[in-house]
Amino acid sequence: MKRPSHLLTLFVRQSYCERPSSRVSRRSTLALDATGRVPPEHPPPPAPLVTNHHGGLRRFAADLPRVTEFVTLGEGDTPLLPLPRLAAELGLNQLSAKLESTNPTGSYKDRVAAMTMALARDRGYRGWIATSSGNAGMAMAAYGRRAGLPGFLCLVASAPQQKRLPLVPYGTGVAAVHDVGDGGSAAAGTRLMEAVRDAATRHQLFVAITAGSFNPDGMRGIDTIGYELAEQASDITHVYVPTGGGGLLTSVGRGLARRGIPAALIACQPSGCAPITRYLAGELDAPAIQRCDTSISALQLPHPPDGLLAADAVRASHGWGTDADDDAILTAQQRLATTEGVFVEPAAACAVAALVEDVDHGRVGPDHHPVVILTGAGWKDLGRYTTMADQIPVHAVDTVAAAVDTWAEHL
User: Are 292 and 335 in contact (CB under 8 A)?
Assistant: First the structure.
């Protein structure tokens, strides 16, 4: 409809700063009359571009490091999913899972990446540099591009192909590094960290390593898991956290403590690389070992950078450490998929394996409400399923009915 001639059209541009106070569109059109007022019949301005809490970390801005503008791809506000069938099998009345696998790049690392890139951009860095076994690398690559910051990634050479391939579209600089990860030594890991720090200084890069000892302000993004759990289920009694470097557990514990949730933190590690759980059990004088012997990607840190911080958080919460061998972790991964339809990577399933172990030993009982933090999606590590996928039988159209009948015999 043609506007009356006595109306003036004013285009009001507003820069869309990703902050809680500025969730407005870039452009709204207001029709003003000759007195400069909006006529009563004029429709309201357009709705915010981001709604229903899917604006990333910004809604927790008051509890996070101050930045001028948040960087977001819609991370956070992940579901807390009841697991009734698995709970029944374990003899529990309640069991829930925090699905961090639903974050934009498939893992909880998106939270730290969002906070890290906001800080790096706010502080004027030219780019970023990080180490990763895969999840952090993809998160930093995506959020780095979102923030307009280039980056360089030192990737564990044994990282699964599914964690390598998604890096390619982002154009991130990548170097695959031997002697860290599966079979890696603490000494090699230390040298790598030193090389990263030196390179960051030379090229004015933000150190985007996902550890509190290297990137304390960035890791605060993970505190939001604790904040969300406090909103979703204030009656939780135990939180099972897959633990590699210790930063995730430390941050979740900090978030829960700030919201007054007295849940016990359980550090979950593979038996072949369990420096934190062994330290908590009094087997080691420090949370560090010489070498890892586990196939569970993302949990292969013999000298966890936040090991002491994680141990302190566990003790402060009256929790403990539980380890499980690789076979138990892979069994838990399969059990979670077939029982509840939730497919996660082996590192995430470590939390489920540890819970099963604790239930078997009477540390968790029917009246408790444990939560498992499912850190990453199953598609991130598919190597063990390759052979099974190759064995899927091929049928002609005419034999499909017989194949279905054979399958149905087991219903």
Answer: no
